[in-house]
Amino acid sequence: QVQFVESGGGLVHPGGSLRLSCEMSGPIFGDSTRAWYSQAPGRQHELVAAINENDDTRYADSVKGRFTISRVKIRNTIYLQMNDLKPEDTAVYYCHVLSRASPTSTEYRDFWGQGTQVTVSS
Fold first, then answer.
1. How many CB atoms lie within 10 A of CB 4?
2. How far apart are CA 107 and CA 100, in angstroms?
3. What confidence tier does 45 reach under pLDDT thresholds 50, 70, 90?
4. Is 18 exposed, middle or buried (0-12, 13-18, 19+ CB in 10 A)?
5. CA distance 7 to 25
6. Is 55 exposed, middle or buried (0-12, 13-18, 19+ CB in 10 A)?
């Protein structure tokens, strides 16, 4: 039942910046992980950045030093600050959450946002 409102995508020149946002609503239980994934045409979803309940983060090697994931708990929102964008970053970016299926469940479930297009082109 988790729902997402994603925004912030657009068309930028190489070296430019964008800030993606994803506001979540609905039940998210237990040890959850929130993340941004990218999907270029003909490719699988690829993890870009993730953040857990302890604010531990991890990044794809290709974006380390350029992208930063963050969250604001009171707004139930995560962000992806994207700097020094490259043409290779062009993709649809999806918000994603992984959480327990219920407060006491040992099973996990995941949910995907609708995606926002990022295009980097000269």
1. 20
2. 6
3. very high
4. buried
5. 15
6. exposed
